[in-house]
Amino acid sequence: MILISHFFFGFVFAFVGSITPSMLNMTALKISLEKNKKEANIYALGVAIIVFIQAYLAILLTKYITENPDFLKILEKTGIVIFISLSYYFYKQYKSDKAITESQKVSSNKSFLKGITLSSLNMFAIPFFFAITTTLEMFNLFSFKKLPVFLFVIGSLIGTYCILFLYVKNAQKIKQKIGKLTKDIDLVLSIITGVMACFSLIKIVFFK
After folding, report:
1. Which residues neighbour 93 within 8 Å (Cβ) at sequence distance 6 or greater?
2. Number of folded domains that form the chain
């Protein structure tokens, strides 16, 4: 039962944590619309693999972070710089407005690498899984034994991939519902990452 519960927790929290529009799932949507679903799913796999690593690191670092809260502040400050840089990058992409033709050759390696890169730059992942792990431990619902931990991170990987898969699968439906926004996804991504940077800055300044 404990093994099933750990897989369930990993899956559910990773899935729910990625439902709302974010840099990662909006990029999956963009790749699906501009390239194809296969490339978007390869991108999603890259993202999920990094989430697997981030969830595992968060568990390993739980004790260290608890004893050294300044580590979280370092992550948050680093995140501000990264999100500002990404916001600028996506805005430049939006302004350049490069047309993508169907005859353009698509590289699966680039999609996979993009997933790995953007997921690695997501500085909220480790604090998120740290918070989840700490909360579950408080209620005696988390075990730090190897097998339960492994199933938790596997659940996190699958949960992340599933929500991105749903974004990819329903890309056209999402496009119909939010219309013009999908044509300006780079601008949306620029705004999202900009908001993340502002949120992190406000948290550091006003909620020390």
Report:
1. 186
2. 1
